[in-house]
Amino acid sequence: MAQTATDYDLFVIGAGSGGVRAARMAASYGAKVAVAEEYRVGGTCVIRGCVPKKLLVYASEFAHEIRDIAPGYGWTVTGTSFDWATLRNNVLAEVDRLSGIYARNLRNAGVEIVNQRATVAAPGRVRLADGTEVGARHILVATGGQPWLPTDLDGAEHLITSNEVFLLDRLPGSILIAGGGYIAVEFAFLLKGLGVDVTLLYRGETVLNGFDDDVRIKVHDELKRHGIRVITQAVFSRIEKTDTGCRSHLTNGLTVDTDLVMGAMGRRAYTGGLGLEQAGVALDANGAVVVDAFSKSSVDGIWAVGDVTDRINLTPVAIREGAAFAATVFAGTPMSFDHKDVASAVFSQPPVGSVGLTEAQARSAHGAVDIYKTTFRPMRYVLPNDETRMLMKLVVRASDQVVVGCHIAGPDAPEIIQAVAIAIKAGLTKPQFDATCAVHPTVAEELVTMKEKWVPSP
Asked: Which secondary-structure segment (H or E) carries 151?
């Protein structure tokens, strides 16, 4: 590798979704680009996040389908069994395939891949793990995030994180998951579906803080309906290793014995040891890189996209931020990604889809709002007499009838919310929703047939 004053137009630290998109786009604009990755190309989403997790969710849903749904449609299914090693190996093979595609796409775009850790030596200078220093007109930090664990907790060394679940030699008979965010909730449901006895520990009262309250209550109730033990308003006091697993001592006086204990108590930007502070780059209290609307840090020539900035920590957001950065810096087209009305999903069982303002946020921002909501049993679950229910909710600004939020909890919610997000991003009104003809019979038709405003009980 050359060591001239400026070896690259762009050096990207981190080959996750945001970094890869930025690198490829910059190269397409004629820039000389390198990207360094200390582990594997693909980042959190491909290697240890969205993709393998969604595959595990699919796997976990089969138990419910075979045991509870199929008999209602006349199917008698016998002799079923589940093999964790087969699932795990198939998932890891898919991860390998996707990582290879990411790497191939980078090379095909003319991007040099550096398979080692890189840090910021100074503005315009990057230091590699082997001691080599290279110059770059622009440095893009795209190192993502990592699970946060309480280092001051007695017994914290016994905690695993979501990263390790994908690599387990065998499934535990029981697990305690600490946390109430989407990662904790998703793993609670999917592990329960795979036959694990699950306890969820959450310091708050209702899971999924930040989501609409109706959705939070719905998911919390579903956790319990699925047989997951939910302990709220408590945290660890200490974790003790036992002959068979771990004993979790809680601040409410309870002790819980499980084979494994998993921490899903949040994530932090992966900025430790990157040399950013020494280079003068401003970080926030949680270590995230502070950037402006164009992803520029406090230091000229140093930029950041994705979870490392802790704006909206979603893969598609990182991709859009990476593309906007490349257009701004290398295509002469200043562009910033609009973080308003970004849809999100929680792959719980049933899943959640959400876009726009929650009811509480809308009341705070706009005052008077109209609420339309309904709960019903999807047609698919009538014959099996299954208790799964769908929740749909529209939040409408009363002053002009613009739909400012949509929240769905039920089958196919993430698929539905993608289309609804277009309407909300476009600022469509409730009358325009109402003027849209329904597709029957579908669960989604409820979005255009809800006519009665919801009135809270006195």
From this structure: none
